[in-house]
Amino acid sequence: MSSYKLTYTRFSERSILIQWPEEIDPKIHKDLLRYKENILKYSKDIIQVINTYNALLLAYTTIEVDYKNEIERLKLLRTKTLAIEPLQTKLWKIPVCYDVKYGLDLEELAAAKNSSIAQLVQWHTEAVYKVYFIGFLPGFLYLGGLDNRLIMPRRQRPRPQIMKGAVGIGGNQTGVYPNASPGGWNIIGNSPITFFDAKAKQPCFANAGDNIQFVAIDINRHAEIRDQIDHGNYKLESEVGNG
Amino acid sequence: MVEVLRTGLYDSIQDLGRLGYQHLGVPTSGAMDQYAASLANSILGNQPEDAVLEFTLLGPSLRFHISTAICITGMQSDAKINGRSVSNNTVININQQDRLSFGQRILGSKGYVAVLGGFQSENVMGSRSMYQNITQKPRILKNDQLSILQLTLINRQPNAHVNTPVSHFNSAQLEVFKGMEFNRLSRVQQDLLFKKEFMVSKDCNRMAYPLEGCLENNLESIITGPVLPGTVQLTPSGQMIVLMRDCQTTGGYPRILQLTEMAINQLSQRAPGEKFTFKIA
């Protein structure tokens, strides 16, 4: 059972930050997602709870919060949080085209790793990645679980423009650029999937706690999926899991 | 409809912001100076969430194609209707074809124009605040046609006028709370943080106000955690960055201070080169 030492701090005039030990650990993450569920279920005056690897930020609708009492209430709620059922999560299969047309840094990365492109792709598609949270840019998933053999420092010079859907590696992180933006990661492929659609009822398909796996597709299939998405008849594959 | 004859330095439609979507990585956005934007709406009798036009350092030039009433707040810069000077913080009646223009900046940095019923630009995720990849337009451009409602002013108090204290625009001290990583600073650094004068850098924008005047930094980065508008980050070079309304939702630099809501409004009114100190709220 979870016995982490949590700290509760008033972060701003209308928010409280709850922090776990400063570690990237799936167990901590699972524990905080459960607590998050409970807080959302049993609180009024909270607009939203944002989670990262080891923190929950509780945003209140009003500045008229009695923070001392509220923190006591949250601590009490914490003692009840252990009983709830495990979270239902999904495993999303994300198609990625690892062609050098999209994978601008594949050759450089393969040379640096003294390996073949095919080998890099295998390592990148074999791993199951945990979605820790969405942040930085709308629809940008912070993923954990990159194969150690693929760790690569960010590029010395960031590129001024990286394509929407670009899949990159930066240090021990991997991720997908949901929209065109400047960026310093090593680009290894491109996903035709839309990671963020402001007009959609659910703007981002994934939730914190879900898992994803990348599936290699060729350049023709990439174009085909893109086309299906444009015509609204593509459905992303997923499986139900429990953690 | 309101026609944009000429843009200022950076014009956009803003309201109270896009609340409740930060867990998807969506910035809060909204008027940089929420106090001034709300004041404009309240003088006109609008709803608090009605959208206003925000401009920076230099105002746009607008032609109104329907009659309405407006209120200008925030930055003072010799506003004119058809060449005749008008005051801030009061109701101004507008006839069809009237032209609003702004002159040289006198005080402040962010100006607001509210119209009766608010600007009717597209509402995405509960807000009309413009932001790249969320709203179709990230900002207002020349020749844009901004839609507004056909409304007549009722219950007008003829001489309603509210004063904004000058200190709102040039306050020498900004009130802050200690940030999450404040206690990791040495005593010397902590003292310096409240003694030293900091200056707004010329690179300031709606996302962040970098500050000139470094603080020696030997803190390690933190693992990425939540940040908010008003969070002051200490970067590895020792430069401090105050995050503003369009900021990202998470960050990895130590969070050494948190501005109060009013201090965010006040900082947004400071221009590059202006100085201030921090003070515990």
TrEMBL record, chain A:
It comes from the Bacteria. This is Inhibitor of KinA. Residues 6-206 form the Carboxyltransferase domain. Gene3D superfamilies: 3.30.1360.40, Cyclophilin-like (2.40.100.10). GO terms for molecular function: ATP binding; hydrolase activity. Pfam families: CT_C_D. InterPro entries: CT_C_D (IPR003833), Cyclophilin-like_dom_sf (IPR029000), PxpB (IPR010016). Keywords: ATP-binding, Hydrolase, Nucleotide-binding.
From TrEMBL, chain B:
InterPro entries: CT_A_B, Cyclophilin-like_dom_sf, PxpC. Residues 23-281 form the Carboxyltransferase domain. The keyword Electron transport does not apply. The keyword Transferase does not apply. Keywords: ATP-binding, Hydrolase, Nucleotide-binding. GO terms for molecular function: ATP binding; hydrolase activity. Pfam families: CT_A_B (PF02626). SMART domains: AHS2 (SM00797). This is Biotin-dependent carboxylase-like uncharacterized protein. It comes from Gelidibacter sediminis.
